[in-house]
Amino acid sequence: MAGFEDLSQAVLEGDEARVVEVTKSLLDSGVDPLDVINKGLITGMDRVGVLFKNNEMFVPEVLMSAKAMNAGVEVVKEKQQAFDMPSLGKVVIGTVRGDLHDIGKNLVAMMMESSGFTVYNLGVDIEPAKFVEAVKEYRPDIVAMSALLTTTMMNMKETIDALKEAGLKDKVKVIIGGAPITQEFADEIGADGYAPDAASATELCKQLVEGREKVGVPA
């Protein structure tokens, strides 16, 4: 019988049909759905993240792996009607005001989602007030902001200032990324972290939610 390694490898290879087949086989044999998710599907995406970070996998391959992983998750949901998909935490993500770049931000969102985070993707050209509204509505653990232009990166600071004015900055962790962004800039504007790529952003979020008691807007 196929096992977790087979499922992980199928995700890594972006083999959607094989992922569906192995997921069904594991569930039919009585394997805990949580183990199928954590030890097979997410483990596969974790391997994808490492390879992507090391430039050994590229965006089209990552997208195929994510699609295959999501197909497996859907099988779990279909077969286990009462199954609640576990979440590592909640992330609100968006590209800041004045910036219309979407691809990198969407890749980060996809990697986070595939790794087990619940992601609220606000889109592009997001006003600071809209980030604040989203934090109040979704109560995330993390706010992730993207900017690809030097002319828009300062809007990250405006968003952080807006969160402070709303009394929310101490309730969430803020991470930033994008082509012109550096760790020094993150420190300068008061962000809690910086990630140079999608895989690093996902790893950073995992590290930040380890201190979960320190983050998250109360209900």
Report on the architecture of this protein.
- The protein has 219 residues and is an alpha/beta fold.
- The chain folds into two domains: 4-79, Methyltransferase, Methionine Synthase (B12-binding Domains), Chain A, domain 1, CATH 1.10.1240; 89-213, Cobalamin-binding domain (Rossmann fold, 3-Layer(aba) Sandwich).
- It contains nine helices and five strands.
- The protein has a five-stranded parallel beta sheet, sandwiched between helices.
- Helix 2 packs parallel to helix 4 (59-79), helix 3 (33-53) crosses helix 9 and helix 4 (59-79) crosses helix 5 (103-114).
- The chain starts with a helix and ends in a 10-residue tail after the last helix.
Short description:
The chain has 219 residues and is α/β, with parallel strands linked by helices. The chain has helices spanning 4-12, 16-28, 33-53, 59-79, 103-114, 128-138, 154-165, 183-189, 198-209, and strands spanning 90-95, 118-121, 142-146, 173-177, 193-194. Helix content is 54%, strand content 10%.
What brief labels describe this structure?
5 strands, Methyltransferase, Methionine Synthase (B12-binding Domains), Chain A, domain 1, 2 domains, 219 residues, elongated, alpha/beta, five-stranded parallel sheet, 9 helices, Rossmann fold
What structural class do the secondary elements suggest?
A: alpha/beta
Q: What is the string of SSEs from the N terminus onward?
A: HHHHEHEHEHEHEH
What's the CATH topology label of the largest domain? Rossmann fold
Helix content: 40-55%
The CATH class designation of the largest domain is Alpha Beta
Total helices: the number is 9
Question: What order do the strands of the largest sheet run in, or round the barrel if closed?
Answer: 2-1-3-4-5
